[in-house]
Amino acid sequence: MSQATLVKRQFGHRARLALSPAGIRAADDQAHAARTMWNLLHAWWRMMPKEKRTLANADAAIRQARKDIDFLAILPAQAAQAVLKTYFRAWKNCWEGRADAPDFKGRLRTVMSVDIPQGRDLNIVRVHRRWGMVNLPKVGRVRFRWTKDLPVGKHTNTDNRITGARLIKDALGWHIAFRVQTQEAGPDPHQGPDIGIDVGVSVPIALSDGQTYEHGAWLTEKEKEKDRLLHLERRAAQRKQHRKPGERTSRRLHHTYDQIADLRAKAKRRALDWQHRTTTAIARTYGTVVVEALTITNMVKSAKGTVEEPGKNVAQKTGLNRSISGEAWGRTVTMLAYKTARLGGTLVKVPAPGTSRRCSACGVTTLGSRESQAVFVCRNPDCGWSGNADHNAARNVLHLYRMGLALVPAAGRVVVRRANRVKPAAAR
To answer: For position 20, what pLDDT does the model report?
Structure first.
């Protein structure tokens, strides 16, 4: 393989940490200090005139804050610098139209995390087949689950190395996400066939060639009803009834909330595993993957309405919104985007309206052709084709692409980038 075909690639790998109780307290304190640093930066930004909102002035401000506030000293200096860079990057994303303006971070609704910018500080060693050791600043040596080969020891060089990491806490505990930079051969153009994909609730992923990818419930019946989730939710509702307005939440209720979060985090990890395996199989098989350009935020809007004009079928719409959110269609498309690009394929999007009502056999849209969620029967007297409704929609998605109605490719061999938006005058 010639040197010209080598490309640099960056990816992340997440592993579970085995922290001691003292290590958990130290990591929690660092995460709270990082959140406090962000909030102080945001308050400083709002207070300072526009001409003094510079990186140098912000750096001087956080250095002075670390001297004045003893609690912030538990956060390593490099982690504090990472908070500063992340905050300025958040404003840049806002100015360029990629995100909303940054705001204060609340204690309960914010994901606890600490950044380790320098990979050389980690000093990773593989202990045996299942465990490795990593050095965490101001925490010490900690074991982590070794589930993927990392470039450590003699396998490390300038083109294949760990550039940093991030500590993240979820309902299942503390994890470490390594940032890995590697050099590998660039993918050749994928020679697989084209495929259209329709996403749904009853059938999560339906392909235009008739294949479907389905899954069961993310929690078992025992976890969901008999012993765990339903029982815990009832217990939380019962304890919440006895709390007076303005009264602090009891430790027992907090403990119940933690148990509910543990079960939901377990369900999310199972859903992520299914999505990764499914999208990998699709990206390896097909060269061009065509999906609908869905506006999911509009699809999951509430039907409650207003007091003057109340909505209809609010409970049914709430259940549908919950099912759509549970399938995480946007995350599936994101996975397909980078996996097809990595394997030399292309992912494109086509307009979504009408794909579920049009007959893929005759091309005619007739009222009432979709009899149910799963059955499509063409009402055109000259056609009469019948089949699975999701399969029909996937064939229509592929038809739009072949007719040249595709939108800007989402990822792959040819990507057209939009021009950067001009910064608002008030934010320059």
So the answer is: 92
